[in-house]
Every structure is written in C-alpha cells, then in structure tokens.
Amino acid sequence: MGQNLAADVDPLGPVFISYRQSDGLEIATDLAWALRAAGIPVWHDLTDLPPGDTKRRLQEALASGLSGAVLLITPEIEHSEVISDIELPCLLDLEGNPTFTLAIGSVVEKQDESGELDYSAPDQLLKLESGTLEGLNQQKAVGPEDQATLAISLSRRRMMQIRSSIKDAGGMLVFDIQTRVPPSASQFDGDLVLRLRPPVAGERRPHASGLEDLSLFLGQLPELLTIAGADAIRIRGGAHLSVACALGAAIPTTLIGRVEVVDTQGHIWSLTGQAPTPGPSSLFDFDVLTTREQERGPVLVYVDLLPQRSDTAFEDMTESSTATYAGIAHLRSQSADLLVSDQASAIVGEITDRIRSLANSQKTTEVHLLLRCPYPIALLLGRTLNTLTVHLYEWEDSPTGSSTTGPRYVPSMVLRSGSGGSPIHAITAPPPERSP
C-alpha cells in the first residue's frame, strides 16, 4: 500500500474480521455478532464492504482506523489470495502498533484427539515463517462459548486501551446500544458499542440468538467496567425493554454509583445510588386486581407509563394464562402527561417499591413483569430489582394471517441478578413465527 498503516490505529475503532468464505462464513458471521454483543464495533465484509474494486475497498477499510482484527483460521484459508496478498500483510503492519490487537480465532486442532489448538497451523496454512503468528493470541472459535470468550478478551483489551481517556472524562464511560437496526462499522460513537442481531423480519421481539449473545456478555460487564476505571456510565441509543432491563440488572446500584440514560430527544434520565423511598405523595396509581390471602406464589405486574392506555394484551394474558398468579397489579401514571426525565429517580423508586411490596405480600421473590414505558425507565428499573427473579416479556404484533391471535406479550427472558455471573438466568423467547 506504500504507507505505514501502524499509524492508522484508533483504540475505539472497529475490529476487522479476516476469513476464508468457503469454510469460514458461518463462523465469521457468528463471531461478528459475538464481538458486537461484547461492545465492539465490527468491520465485516458482509455488512461493510462497499461496491467497487474489492482490493481497493479492503485497503481503504484496513487504513480507516481499526482497533484490532481477528484472523479466522480454517483449513481452506491456505487457498485465499485475498488474505495472503492483501489482508495479512496489512494486519501484520498494523500489529506493529502496540495499541492494535491482532487475535487469532482458530478451528484447527491437533490431530492427536486432545482437542487442543494446533498453534503452528496459522503459519503453515498461510506459508509464513515459523513463529510469525504462532506467538500471537490464539483462541478457539468453534462454538458460541468459544466465540464469546474470544470477544470478551478483545473487549478487555479495548477497556485497557481507553482507561486513560475514561480517567480524563471524570470516570464516565459511554455505552452505545441498539437492538433493532442492522449494524454498520461506520456508525459507532462510544467506549462500548453493543449491537444485537435485529429481530426477524416482520417481528418486534428481540432475536433469540441475540439474547444468548447478550447473556454471555453481561456476566463480564462488571469486570470490564473495573478494567476501564469507570465509576459512572452514560448510555445512548435504544433497545427492547427486556434488553434494557437486563443491561440495568448487570450494573446494579451496588456496582456503579451513577448511570445516565440519554433518550432520543437528548433528555438525560439518571439514577445515582439507591432508588429513593417514595414520599407521601404518589406519582402512580397501583391497582391490585387479584391477591390470594395467605397463598404464596408468583405475582404479575403491568407497568404502563404511556399516556394512551393499552390494556387489551394485558387483560388477555391474565384471562388466558395457564399460570397461577398469587397477585396481579396494574401500575399507571396519575398524570395524562408524558413522564419527565428530571423525575427519573422518584419514578424508579416508586415502581420498585410497589413491585417489592406486592411480592412481599405474597411471600415470593418471583415477579412476572410487563413493561410499557420509556426505555430509560426500563434500564434504570433493572438496576433496582436484585434479589428478585423477574420474568420479562416483549410486545408482539398479531401473526400474519391470524384472525384469532391479536397483539400480545410474549416471554423474553428471566433475570436473576445479585448472585454473580450474568443476570440473565434463562432465555424464554419463543422461536420465530416467520421465516428469516
């Protein structure tokens, strides 16, 4: 390329995925999603290679300010001229910059049935001098857990690289999230940039595989924040409400003092420390519709904070559900106006108190929660629900062509935070109703 690429490194830039399509396409695609779910923007040819001369476009991407790359080693990589002639020389040049991370994701194991990686395979398959790639960080990339481990290792490295900038920002880490739109390597603006697989075409609910990716990441988030030296988080973007709640559960008030969520109008909703205890005046009506005296069991709470009422799906669920709830309640705002961000702490404090009070009255820690509210509230509420087992649901439209099934709430996930590891205890999202 006639230039020193080592100077073109951005610690916040995307990670480039280099792979052989003939036997690595599926693995590379899953790895790209694992990286995105771990907060790392990705350059992947399927989504980011623009029209034009392939060699030139690849060279432009490699000089565009990457933070790192994953070289995916599969048996047929030895036949890739694009990798050997274009990508690999550039990646080795970039690797000369200490802030650039070149990782090896491999599926080539030793032939002794030990299941261990063949660390000499990358050099042999790419016809390089022995030791060129053998000494680099090599990890398995065979299945989802391997890919998540590789992604988290790159996310740790990213946090190390930006630690000084986090300190200069007063300890504030910027977290950008989107769960509904396809990702792009050119569209990112954050220290952690989380992207999940978008919903299946024609559906609203989160992609079930995206929730699995998220679950593998969230258990590592506290460590990543510690590595970065963050003591406050500003979250931007948008997310499904169950995902927002799960993210909040991964950063409880006992872990991070201040969390700010920026809505689409630029308003900041924040919660610093524990949610306040409600005062004598109430923001919400809390209608307890059903309780069974002296009976233990899960409770169902519908948190509906939008001005225009929408009760049908909630009522259908309570009437048709085969589950037996010891208590059912409907929480509504007393005002017909939109909620204001300045009241975020008070809003979250009262909702949390109401949910816990109902659960305590039925001597349970198991709560089924329907959310119809601004996503910042869902996220901040997730921070306060530790010690509860929370079943979350998502709104879904009527199935195409159905005359009997209307819009309804479908299961998404079960949260159980405060016990270490990922707050996502189980993924309960049903399979797609429509073909991808």
How would you summarize this macromolecular structure in one to three sentences?
The chain is α/β, with parallel strands linked by helices.
Give structural notes.
This protein starts with 14 loop residues before the first strand and ends in a 9-residue tail after the last strand. It has twelve helices and 17 strands. The model has no long low-confidence stretch (mean pLDDT 91). It is α/β, with parallel strands linked by helices and 436 residues long. It has helices spanning 21-37, 45-48, 54-62, 81-94, 121-125, 144-168, 208-218, 221-228, 241-250, 312-320, 344-361, 375-382, and strands at 15-18, 42-43, 68-73, 101-106, 137-140, 172-178, 192-195, 232-238, 258-262, 268-272, 284-291, 299-304, 327-333, 366-372, 389-396, 408-416, 424-427. It has a seven-stranded mixed beta sheet with strand order 11-13-12-14-15-16-17. 32% of the residues lie in helices and 23% in strands. Strand 4 (101-106), helix 5 and strand 5 (137-140) form a beta-alpha-beta unit. Helix 6 runs parallel beside helix 8 and helix 9 packs parallel to helix 12 (375-382).
Topology:
Elements: E1 15-18, H1 21-37, E2 42-43, H2 45-48, H3 54-62, E3 68-73, H4 81-94, E4 101-106, H5 121-125, E5 137-140, H6 144-168, E6 172-178, E7 192-195, H7 208-218, H8 221-228, E8 232-238, H9 241-250, E9 258-262, E10 268-272, E11 284-291, E12 299-304, H10 312-320, E13 327-333, H11 344-361, E14 366-372, H12 375-382, E15 389-396, E16 408-416, E17 424-427
Parallel strand pairs: 1-2, 1-3, 3-4, 4-5, 6-7, 6-8, 8-9, 12-13, 12-14, 14-15
Antiparallel strand pairs: 9-10, 11-13, 15-16, 16-17
